[in-house]
Amino acid sequence: MNRDGVRWDVRPVRSFRRQRDSVWPGCFGVAESVGADDAVAMRRPLVLLALLTCGLTGCRACDKPEAPADAAIGCIGDPVSEMGEGTYYDADGTGNCSFDPSPGDRMVAALNGPDYAHAAWCGACLAVAGPMGEVVVRVVDQCPGCKHGDLDLSREAFARLAPLSAGRVRIAWHEVACPVTGPIAYQFKAGSNEFWTAIQLRNHRYAIQKLEARDANAAYHAIARGNDNYFVAPKGLGRGPYALRVTDVHGHVLEDSAVAPGVAVSRPGAAQFPTCP
Questions:
Q1: Distance between CA atoms of residues 20 and 51, nearest Å
Q2: For an engineered disulfide with 110, which of 28, 124, 143, 238 has Cβ 3.0 to 4.6 Å away?
Q3: Residue 184: DSSP 8-state
Q4: Nearest Cα to Cα of residue 228 among 198, 263, 252
Q5: Could you give the CA distance from residue 200 to residue 206 in angstroms, rounded to a whole number?
Q6: For the whole model, what pTM was predicted?
Q7: Helix runs in 195-265, H state only
Q8: What is the pLDDT of residues 142-192, one digit of tens each?
Q9: How far is residue 114 from each of residues 46, 149, 153, 259, measured CA to CA in Å?
């Protein structure tokens, strides 16, 4: 992901799982061979990562998982992975990403300021490993004081990784598919109208790369995203209904040809992004 938030940079590194496999093949599956230079450079952080994930008492046998039934062919890029420190706060699902409170789902997190990148990660899910175990969280907020790689987790999520009394622990995390059901959703911001239109994507499996609207000449135009996770057309999109195209960070594309406009309402799309194998 670029630091300017415009594009995501899929770095030429092994995925989180492949990195773990190179150190602990007995726990995580068949290891892929790496060069000597790679092994030297990777060994120290990967030992920590493996210990955090597997624990110090041993590893369970793991079979290589089969691809999901709805797996997509040709997903762009490996999942992004990072290491840093984890803390916790009193989260309720709201925050800079402008999502509604989620009392039934407190497995959420605030992403560090450098990685937040103008809301590029909002709604994405991360698998986080800590001293006591793992948890999957959804990004709902920004942590301006956190450093690159850090996560500020809900109390409930942090408790899956370490005792709350620890306060701050080392973590490793990587991007995963969100366990969503049903199609994506278009949330129209309060105040939206034909002359000023703001739309947010919700219930998506992967982070959103871009939102585009089709004009009267059948040409698509990108809508800029603000720091509050709304895509805003400052001159509006007209009376509607709208033809919208959504692209996620793995290159999947969804199109909805007749999204009805509204004010502070959610409109369901026709489909959901497929799962990467």
A1: 10
A2: 143
A3: -
A4: 198
A5: 14
A6: 0.75
A7: none
A8: 999 999 999 999 999 999 999 999 999 999 999 999 999 999 999 999 999
A9: 23, 9, 16, 34
DSSP string for residues in 23-43: H-HHHHSSPPP--HHHHHHHH
Q: Which residue reads 């995390």 in tokens?
A: 173
Q: What is the spatial distance between Cα 26 and Cα 44, in angstroms, rounded to a whole number?
A: 18
- How far is 145 from 109, CA to CA, in rounded Å? 14
Strand partners, 105: none
Lookup: tokens for 216: 């009267």
Q: Where are the alpha helices (DSSP H) in 90-139?
A: 113-116
- Per DSSP, the three-state class of 274 is coil
Query: What is the identity of the amino acid at 151?
Result: L
- For residues 193 and 263, is the Cβ–Cβ distance under 8 A? yes
Cα(130)–Cα(162) distance, rounded to whole angstroms?
7
Cα–Cα distance measured from residue 181 to residue 158, given in angstroms and rounded to the nearest whole number: 25
